[in-house]
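Aim 2, interim progress. The first record below pairs a target sequence with its C-alpha cells.
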Amino acid sequence: MTIFELGALGEFVGAIAVVFTLIYLSLQIRRNTKAVQASAVDVSISRANDVRESMYENAEVSRIYMQGLTHPEELDEESRLRFRLLIHNVLLAGSNIYSQTSFAGLSLSTWEAQLTLLKRVITSPGGRWFWKEYRLEFEETFRGQIDKILQAT
C-alpha cells in the first residue's frame, strides 16, 4: 500500500468518524431538548401548585382570593395587595407556560390546558380589574393572548 492509498484510507476513516460524531451529537441534543422541556413543564406546574397550596393551607388567603375575584373593590388595602400578588402569580405561571410553548417547543396542548383556568380568573371582576391595572407587567405576546380571552367574553 502506498502513502497515497494510506492517506485516502485515513481520510475515509476520518469522514466516517465525523458522520458518527454528528449522529451522536444529534441524539444528545434531542435528549437534552426533551429534558429541558420536561423541566419547563415541572417548573410551570410547580409555580401553579405553589399558588394553589397557599390557598388551601390558609383560609385567609382563600377568602381574599374568592372575594377579590368577585368584589375586588370591597377588599381593604392590605387584602387588595395580597389578591393582586396572588393573581400576578397565577398569571406568571400561565405566562411561563405560554413562553415555554412559544419559544422552547413545549407541547401546544400544555398551553391550551391552562386556558380554562386563565379564562376563569381573568374574566372575573377581580381578574378584569387586575388586568386593567397591571397588564403592562407581562410580556407583549402573552398580553395579546389574555386580551383575546377578554375580547371573546
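The second target in this work package is listed in the same format:
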Amino acid sequence: MKSKAINEKPKTFAIVFEKGDEVLEGLKRFAREEQLGASQFTAIGAFSEVLLGFFNFEKRDYKRIPVNEQVEVLSLIGDVALEDGDPKIHAHVVLGKSDGTACGGHLLEAFVRPTLELILTESPKHLQRVMDDETGLALIELGQDN
C-alpha cells in the first residue's frame, strides 16, 4: 500500500493498495498512523476474494457471504470513526462479476488484485462510535462535543 497527501484543507489522501493487500487492516493501520478520527472514503479497483456481510437484526450478527472469484470494485464507500480511541472502518461495497451481475454488502474482508485506488478525506472533527444495546453494533454518536 502506498499513500500520498493530495490536499491540505480538507486533509485528503490518495491511497493505492497493491496485489495481495487486505483492505480493512491496511486502512485501519493508515488511520492510526495519520491519527485520523473522522474520515470518509471512496474507492474503485478489483479484488481476488471478498467476505461480505449482511446484518441480521434478529441475530445481531452478520450473515457471512464469501465471494471467491475475481471481481471489479464498482463502488466502495465508507467512513472512519473512533471506537474506544481506536479507528474503526465501516465500509459497504458493490462488486461486479465476470458475467455482468453485481453483488454487495458490508465489507468484512477483501484482498486486492491487481489494485485498489482509494481517496480519503478527513473531517474537521472526530467522530465516536458507541455500542448500541439494541443492535449490538458500534454506531456513530453525534454528541454536543463532536
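The mean pLDDT is 93. This observation will shape the mutagenesis plan for the next reporting period.
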